[in-house]
Amino acid sequence: xxxxxxxxxxxxxxxxxxxGDWIESKDQSESGIRLIQTGNVGNGIFKNxxxxxxFITENTMSRLGCTEIFEGDCLVSRLPDPVGRACLIPNIxxxxxxxxxxxxxxxxxxxxxxxxxxxxxSSNYRNSINNNTTGTTRKRISRKNLERIPxxxxxxxxxxxIVAELDLLSGIIExxxxxxxxxxxxxxxxxxxxxxxxxxxxxxxETKKLEEVCEYAKTRILSNDISVRNYIGVENLLQNCQGxxxxxxxxxxxxxxxxxxxxxxIGNIRPYLKKIWLADCQGGCNGDVLAIRRKTQFITIVNVxxxxxxxxxxxxxxxxxxxxxxxxxxxxxKKEIMKYELLLPPLSLQREFAEKVEAIERQKALxxxxxxxxxxxxxxxxxxxxx
Length: 387
What we know:
- This protein has 387 residues and is α+β, with helices and mostly antiparallel strands.
- It has eleven helices and 20 strands.
- The longest helix is centred in the middle third of the chain and has 40 residues, at 156-195.
- The protein is elongated and about 70 Å long.
């Protein structure tokens, strides 16, 4: 234990701990008081997700006796993923309540809620949470067990110093992530400026269905194929397909499709339907990943970087979403996806566009490297104080 620090149970430090309210779908309305749910609670950050907000009316709030939450309140999600993640409520411009699977925590003047949220991102906190969860298929922590979690209580001046240090690093990371989004928007803007709206096609480019110029990779990996060392599961698309390999001798029943350099790999199951990667190596992908490959006769007509960017647009994603089937884990309909209409401007223009995008990608790589370096420093700082 660090000098001057004590450890107390969360329930002893907090001035107020209470679960949110049980709000059924029949209680909800199209406007009114915003319902904050577990999906809004990120790991140290608030996720606004204002595309599909939920509300209740003031009358419903009064009838159910709901607890109003305010800017600066701390919310802890008692459900995965992960259990116990926490964030502070920002000012989102309206009154708010929260759902029953979130715990509302308020601290007194001697304990900073920002310090607690910082601590919730540490391995010590995670271990304490995991030791107090229940459930087999879906882990959760009860409010009583949450109140028993030990948390560090340093002097307030030290809390302020640590919070300022962590805020500085996390602020740098968030700004860098905003840069990445800006670069993506720039690439999309260049696409529309160069080629026009793909739907209305104002420049009258030739169009072809995706199935006319591309096909799905169909080569199955054999058990004696030692050339395939990179395994890509759909979850790897979140990390640019890095970090997982398969043995040099592939089992016969592993059920992988062989992809090659230049294939476009797309996630085909929620929540990965918008994840995409242009392969720069060969390997094997599982059935939740679509490996789209240019047909031989179109390699000199369709630039692969141009193709990749076309399939990275929101327009393609929305098209694929129209044909996703299944309630719990929808999958894209492969046949329908291949009917997507591609603009086919002259190859020289495709290449010009691809060169601009590749320059943007190089800048993005530098920003991503900076994010990773800052994240390493953030993790080191977390370990220094909370490890």
